[in-house]
Every structure is written in C-alpha cells, then in structure tokens.
Design brief:
With 438 residues, this protein is an alpha+beta fold. The chain is 17% helix and 24% strand. It folds into two domains: 27-135, Rieske Iron-sulfur Protein (3-layer Sandwich); 149-436, no CATH class. Strands 11, 12, 13, 14, 15, 16, 17 and 18 form an eight-stranded antiparallel β-sheet that branches. Strands 5-6-7-8 form a four-stranded antiparallel β-sheet, with no helix packed on it. A three-stranded antiparallel β-sheet has the order 1-10-9, with no helix packed on it. A hairpin with a 2-residue loop joins strand 9 (125-128) and strand 10 (131-135). Helix 2 packs across helix 7 (364-383).
C-alpha cells in the first residue's frame, strides 16, 4: 500500500514534478498523423503533461508543437494563420516557426530587431509511421526515439487506435499489468464448457487465480503469470511495463503478437491510450479486440480534451445493461473490453487515493511497477540519474503474449527467442506440443 506522498509522486505530471520530469526525458506519442493531414492545415489543440500546446504542419510538411499563448500578449495561437512555414498570431501578426523563433513581427518598425529577442516555447516533434512524437525534455539534442516494434513497421501494417481515458494515467495503465482481472471483468460471463479445449481461454477460466513471478528489467518490469495446462505443461501469460508509460499485454500468442500500448498523461486527471498493433499475427486469442469501432467514438472537438473520446462514460453509466448482467450472459453488463476497463478505472475517481487499498498476491506486478517508477522518478529528481531507456532505444525490442511450456522449463530462458522483436514464428499455435518442441 502506498502512502499519500508516494501517490502524489506517481500521479502528478506537471512541470517541476518528479514524475513530470521523468516523463519528459522520453519521447512520447502526441498526435496522430491523420490529425494533421495536410500542410498549412488547421492547427490542433494538444494537452500533454499538463501543458497546453498547439500542433501545426507547415507548408513543407514539418510539424511544430508550440505553446498556446502568443508570447506577445497571450492570445491563443490556435486561431493563428498557418502559412508559409509558420504560425501567425491573428492579433498583431507575429509569426513563429516550428522551433519557436519569431520570424516576422509586422507590427514593429522595419528597422527593429526585436523579433530576434522573442521566442515561443517549442518542443521537437518527429513523425514516424503515423505517429507524431514529442520530446519535452531538457536536452538540446533529443535522445533517439524508442524502438517500438509496431511503430517501426509500415503504416499500413499496423492498427493504430487512440482513446481518451478520464482518469490519471497510472490507474489506467495498471489495468494492463493486472492479469487476474481477465477472468472476471472481461470473461466472467463465459462458461468453461464453451471454450476450446487446450486453449488459452480454457486455462484462464479453469483457474482464475494465477500465480506470479515478477522481475525488474532494464526497461522497467515484467511478469510471468502461470496456471496449470495439460499434465506436464503450464500456461504462461508474459507481459511488460516499459518506462515511462508503455505496456505490453499478453492477449495473443507469444512470438506472434506485436502490440505496444502507451498511456500518455494529458494532465493529472486525463490520459490518452495509444494502441499500436501489427496486423499480422496479432489477433486476440479467445477474446474481443481492444480497439474501438468508429461508431464508438464521439466526434472530435477542438477542445483540449476533445480527441478520441468514447461514447461510453460515467454520465451514461457506460451503457450498462442490468438485464444482461443479471442473466449471466455478461458478467458486467457493459459491452466491450475497452469500455469495461474504462468503467473500472474512471470510477476510481480522477486520481485514486492508493492509501485506501488492500492489495493481495495477484497485485504483485502492480506493486513492483509502482516501486520501480518511484525509485526511477526520485533518482532523476534528486540525483539526475536518467533511466537506461532514454539512451538505449533497443531496450524496447521485446514482445509479450501467452505460451505453453513444460512444467520444468525456466520461463525466461525458454521464451527468450519468442520475446525477440522482428522475428517470424508463423508455425506457432496454442497447442502445448507445438510450443514444447520449440
């Protein structure tokens, strides 16, 4: 159980906070490419780590990410004219490039050099395969982008989804590293006799209390959650948390699933889920997908929190169907895995007070990850110690998923080849004999 001070460190992400500083050391997904589809198009309001920013694409296609308030008199640059390689404030015509330099100041005399003395706060932006990444850290030369496998595949080979979550990033992310809730929140209405024998879903429903092995890693933390499979075999769900806010869930087959999720803090009370899934070999096993259909989103608005908002919300009780819940056809009465997760994490409140918790053995990964984050954030804040993930992008090259192993196998050694990114394992299946012979 965390005390209130620890909870504050984990939850607060604004400028100057330990976790905010920690987040800023890393590149973060900020904007989808299709949110800035064309040069000189409309600017976009973006909230990130508690800061209000404006994103825009220049005439040459470069992306800028600058402060919302014009440095002159504070008018909003969202209403600016995006033209000729810069964003021009409509109040007095001051114009800023993607680096924040004032490149034109028509309200001042032609002989004035004042424009050379004025800058808007701007952050480096880098576009890769459908995602515009932002670096908000202190370095003049940013570190390398993380080698996130699905974000390094061609854009048409990746299913990219974003979804706003109206709660603190940490409590939203913790759902991804809590494997035991699968058998209740998402599969509690499923019957064992309806599952395919020897499948992952069969083993998950047969034993709803997995045991855990949790370890620290160079990128964060990992767990192996295990249950009995057929005689002589064990079913393992292997998943990861990666600094500063990435998760890799174990919904598919280890070795075939290419899936990374990011829980990017917009502010203390809101976050954006980024789900990046390789289309080949990443189908969910025995479960619904985690992605929304287009009909499940509200239309985007231009407000700070108006992007990728689902229709289900606390205001409509996430469309819970009490008859389905009562009949047993649905454990929750809420349709969709994402909506179920959204309900339980948002209804904790904007920031859950973790000193009220009562944690059990099934919370081992949550506990280990909180401790790792607290140590890492404080080490940076107090001593300037950066995590290894900042300068070693290869640490992100791993995979998650489910696997059947012989009972006497070491789960880490036996799955090393399956956890390697950019490898093909087309022959993999859920069958124990197939995996045991690898």
């Amino acid at each position: 159980m965390l005390n209130k001070a620890d909870n504050e460190v984990l939850s607060r992400v604004g400028p100057g906070t330990p976790m905010g500083e920690f987040m800023r050391q890393h590149w973060l997904p900020a904007v989808r490419r299709d949110e800035l589809p064309s040069p000189d198009g409309p600017p976009l309001r973006v909230k990130l780590l508690g800061e209000e920013l404006i994103a825009f694409r220049t005439s040459s296609g470069e992306v800028g990410l600058i402060q919302s308030a014009c440095p002159h008199r504070g008018a909003s640059l969202f209403f600016g004219r995006n033209e000729e390689e810069g964003l021009r404030c409509v109040y007095h015509g001051w114009k800023f490039d993607v680096a924040g330099a004032c490149v034109d100041m028509p309200s001042e005399p032609a002989e004035s050099n004042f424009k050379s003395k004025v800058r808007a706060k701007a952050y480096p932006a880098h576009e890769r395969n459908g995602i515009i990444w932002a670096y908000m850290g202190p370095r003049q030369v940013p570190p390398p982008l993380p080698r996130i496998e699905p974000n390094m595949l061609p854009e048409d080979e990746v299913l990219l989804e974003t979804a706003h979550r109206a709660c603190n990033w940490m409590q939203a992310m913790e759902g991804d590293i809590d494997t035991s809730h699968l058998s209740f929140l998402h599969s509690g209405g499923e019957l064992l006799e309806n599952q395919r024998p020897k499948s992952f879903s069969y083993y998950s429903l047969k034993d709803k209390a997995p045991r855990y092995v949790v370890i620290g890693t160079g990128f964060g933390t990992s767990y192996g959650a295990y249950r009995p499979a057929e005689p002589g075999f064990t079913y393992w769900r292997i998943a990861h948390f990666l600094y500063p806010c990435f998760s890799m869930i174990p919904t598919g087959i280890l070795g075939k699933q290419v899936l990374v999720r990011a829980w990017v803090p917009l502010d203390d009370d809101n976050c954006m889920l980024w789900s990046m899934a390789g289309r080949a070999g990443s189908a969910m096993v025995g479960q619904n997908t985690y992605v929304f259909g287009h009909d499940d989103y509200l239309p985007n608005t231009t407000s700070w929190l108006g992007r990728s908002v689902g229709r289900g919300a606390l205001s409509n009780d996430y469309f819970i169907d009490r008859e389905r819940q009562k009949s047993g056809s649905s454990f929750t009465g809420i349709a969709g895995i994402h909506e179920q997760d959204q309900c339980v994490t948002e209804t904790m409140g904007p920031i859950y007070q973790r000193d009220h918790e009562h944690l059990g053995t099934s919370d081992a990964m949550v506990i280990r990850t909180r401790r790792a984050l607290l140590r890492a954030a404080r080490a940076l804040h107090e001593n300037g110690d950066e995590p290894a993930t900042v300068d070693n992008p290869d640490l992100y090259l791993t995979r998650s998923g489910g696997v059947i192993l012989p009972n006497d196998a070491d789960w880490l050694l036996a799955t090393e080849h399956l956890r390697a990114a950019f490898t093909d394992h087309e022959d993999l299946s859920e069958a124990p004999v197939t995996l045991a012979s690898e």
